[in-house]
């Protein structure tokens, strides 16, 4: 395989580590805090996780390590969607294991959790690992979305771990994957084994975060990748001066990406799903607000603009949220009846007749293409596949229809021409930024130290991330500390709570402070491509979100 010059150069990049991790293993000491509690539902979670609940926060400090040279056998999986930096988690884990003891072994299980269930793995060595340092993607071992849920699956994982003589399993994933890691850790202890489980926080959506997990890996790179593309479109819009670009961005459950990209590029409109839900905005009011910005800019002769749309927006609009919930339940209970229907009209009439009157009205008001997408195949959890709904095209059509009606009545004489974009896969496997390359390598190295310290049911944590790496703090957070119970498929289940955009948080307040000006004045900012080489103020900066949250 012929390598690009950038790939060749990135192989030689040496990720930065928190100071304590640069020490010899014998000089890294584990410091444990006080027992912890879950964020909610403490009694129920303590009963469910009777073996692993309430563990203390772990921090690594300079000191004496009583067991510095264990020969460890560890398995690692990548779970869920791709995020830049996953390879560096694995290389950091590998290097840490080999530094502890050159005889240590790291297995990569293929295709995510299913590889762990089916005992399909590769054993890493130096030449294998070196081909993936500082590169994007999850192709080192692949990923998957299988959940370890049934008794048979848990037993299969236990057999795999025992056959491979594993000391630990590392789960690299998002909130659902790390919830699964917590359940697996509890299961191993309950079965009387000493097999450990450590999680690593991954999701470009940015919704796996809290006081101790300050950002999930991949978010930095993805936002910088999208912001470059948005900045390019901003410049094109300001050059051509004739198009309104509606750009949908990844982020089903949270609008962190849309918010960060707005702060980076200063669009004319940035919709934030959490604000829409809090203000109980209807689809019609959203359309009205965009149309008002279009008219104000048109009055100044600027018939162009940029609108950022979070992927999950439609589920946060009150009447659409109710509609989607009804559709999910309806199609789940009438799967066979719906499957035999031929053609859109038959399917539409079947669904329309079983919805509540308000949802039926909302459903019928949508363009046919959107109605078809809402009735399309569900995801593995039985929910509508939001990423397949062309929300950006829906908004273009509805804004266009409103302005056309106003033009016909003589109240609008400007121009409106909309173009739709969806940035998703473009950001998932980019070369990780220096920040993510450093952060991910540190997460993997820290996971190794958590294993060496005999801990289980923890997620690897690197804190003080808005500061230079020389001030980073490494440790681990009990997975149960991040959990509550939520209703899933009619049953209360333990889950790591998703972190949504906080409307009283500094990043959102920064948007609010500026958005009226950005709406009417062309204030675009052009971040440009990710910089891998150059001064630290160009190459190593965190996201604006993280800097504002930590007031760095």
Short description:
Helix content is 43%, strand content 16%. With 552 residues, it is α/β, with parallel strands linked by helices. The protein is globular, with a radius of gyration of 25 Å.
Write a structural description.
This protein is α/β, with parallel strands linked by helices. It folds into 3 domains: 26-204 and 433-496, Rossmann fold, CATH 3.40.50.450; 221-249 and 251-311 and 390-423 and 502-547, Phosphofructokinase domain (Rossmann fold, 3-Layer(aba) Sandwich), CATH 3.40.50.460; 318-389, Orthogonal Bundle (Arc Repressor Mutant, subunit A). Helices cover 43% and strands 16% of the residues. It has 22 helices and 16 strands. The protein has helices at 5-11, 42-48, 86-100, 113-118, 126-130, 151-163, 175-190, 219-240, 256-265, 273-278, 283-299, 313-316, 318-333, 335-339, 344-352, 357-364, 368-374, 391-409, 434-452, 506-520, 536-539, 544-549, and strands at 28-35, 56-62, 73-79, 105-109, 121-123, 143-144, 168-173, 196-201, 244-249, 269-270, 305-310, 418-423, 458-463, 473-478, 483-488, 491-496. The strands form 3 sheets. Strands 1, 2, 3, 4, 5, 6, 7, 8, 13 and 14 form a 10-stranded mixed β-sheet that branches. A 4-stranded parallel β-sheet has the order 10-11-9-12, sandwiched between helices. Strands 15-16 form a two-stranded antiparallel sheet. A hairpin with a 2-residue loop joins strand 15 (483-488) and strand 16. The longest helix has 22 residues, at 219-240. The chain is globular, with a radius of gyration of 25 Å. The two termini are 42 Å apart.
């Amino acid at each position: 395989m012929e390598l690009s010059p950038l790939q060749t150069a990135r192989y030689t990049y040496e990720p930065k580590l928190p100071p304590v991790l640069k020490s010899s293993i014998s000089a890294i000491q584990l410091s444990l805090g006080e027992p912890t509690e879950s964020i909610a539902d403490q009694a129920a979670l303590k009963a469910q996780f009777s073996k692993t609940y309430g563990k203390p926060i772990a921090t690594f400090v300079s000191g004496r390590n009583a067991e510095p040279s264990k020969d460890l056998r560890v398995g690692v999986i990548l779970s869920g969607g791709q995020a830049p930096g996953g390879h560096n988690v694995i290389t950091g884990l590998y290097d840490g294991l080999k530094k502890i003891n050159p005889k240590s072994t790291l297995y990569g299980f293929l295709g995510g959790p299913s590889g762990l269930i089916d005992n399909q793995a590769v054993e890493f060595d130096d030449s294998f690992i070196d081909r993936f340092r500082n590169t994007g993607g999850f192709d080192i071992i692949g990923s998957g979305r299988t959940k370890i849920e049934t008794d048979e699956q848990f037993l299969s994982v236990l057999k795999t771990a025992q056959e491979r003589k594993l000391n630990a399993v590392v789960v690299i994933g998002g909130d659902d994957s790390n919830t699964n890691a917590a359940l697996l850790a509890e299961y191993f202890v309950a079965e009387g084994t000493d097999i450990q489980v450590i999680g690593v926080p991954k999701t470009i959506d940015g919704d796996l975060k809290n006081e101790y997990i300050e950002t999930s890996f991949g978010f930095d790179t993805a936002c910088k990748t999208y912001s470059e593309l948005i900045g390019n479109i901003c410049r094109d819009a300001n050059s051509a001066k004739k198009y309104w670009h509606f750009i949908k961005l990844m982020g089903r459950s949270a609008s962190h990406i849309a918010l960060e990209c707005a702060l980076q590029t200063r669009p004319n409109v940035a919709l934030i799903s959490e604000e829409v839900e809090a203000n109980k905005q209807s689809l019609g009011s959203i359309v009205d607000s965009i149309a008002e910005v279009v008219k104000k800019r048109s009055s100044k002769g600027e018939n162009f603009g940029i609108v950022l749309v979070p992927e999950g927006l439609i589920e946060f609009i009150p009447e659409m949220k109710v509609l989607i919930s009804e559709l999910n339940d309806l199609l789940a209970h009438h799967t066979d009846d719906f499957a035999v229907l031929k053609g859109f009209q038959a399917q539409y009439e079947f669904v329309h007749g079983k919805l509540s009157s308000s949802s039926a009205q909302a459903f019928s008001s949508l363009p046919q293409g959107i109605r078809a997408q809402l009735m399309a195949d569900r995801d593995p959890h039985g929910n509508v596949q939001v990423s397949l709904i062309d929300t950006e095209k829906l908004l273009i059509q509805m804004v266009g229809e409103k302005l056309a009606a106003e033009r016909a009545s003589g109240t609008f004489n400007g121009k409106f021409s909309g173009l739709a974009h969806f940035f998703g896969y473009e950001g998932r496997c980019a070369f990780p930024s220096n920040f993510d390359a450093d952060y991910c390598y540190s997460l993997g190295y820290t996971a190794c130290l958590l294993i060496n310290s005999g801990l289980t049911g923890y997620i690897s944590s690197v804190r003080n991330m808005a500061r230079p790496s020389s001030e980073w703090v490494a440790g681990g957070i009990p997975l149960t500390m991040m959990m509550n119970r939520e209703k899933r498929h009619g049953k209360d289940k333990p889950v790591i709570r998703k972190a949504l955009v906080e409307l009283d948080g500094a990043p959102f307040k920064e948007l609010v402070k500026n958005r009226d000006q950005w709406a009417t004045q062309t204030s675009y900012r052009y971040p440009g491509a990710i910089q891998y080489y150059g001064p630290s103020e160009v190459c190593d900066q965190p996201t604006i979100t993280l800097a504002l949250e930590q007031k760095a």
